[in-house]
Give the backbone structure.
Amino acid sequence: MLRGLIQGLRGRWESLMASPGGATHVARGVAAGAAAAMLPAFGLHLAVAALLALILRGSLPVAGGTCLALGNPLTHAILLPAEYAIGRLLLPPRVEFLPAHGPAWLMAVLPAAEETVVGGLVLALLAGLLAGGAAWRALGGGPRG
């Protein structure tokens, strides 16, 4: 049973690598998935990963798999405070993007959401570039050192 599973995974991997973009196609998928996993877009991570993969012309299955591997409740317990802290550093203290009136729950959440989104975008850019570059190099697209 395990042998069949391994052979099936190997066959899928070989077909993915034989696709018309090869290592570059896979690396772009990794970059899209890693970037999407860093965003505070709960419930929308896979949709964001797919959209980014389409924009980058990367592999949709690889983007989804990478997103699921990196973006889980345990990593978000670490990412959310980090995103908030990064956003606090980058946004000026008195920026007023918020509406003046609205439901109390919305008015309570929005100040933290702005900073978390800004920090999430920074982490998404960094994670996408690093993961995509590492995947590209590991799959034979870059110089070996």
Observations:
- Residues 83 and 119 are 4 Å apart (CA to CA).
- The mean pLDDT is 84.
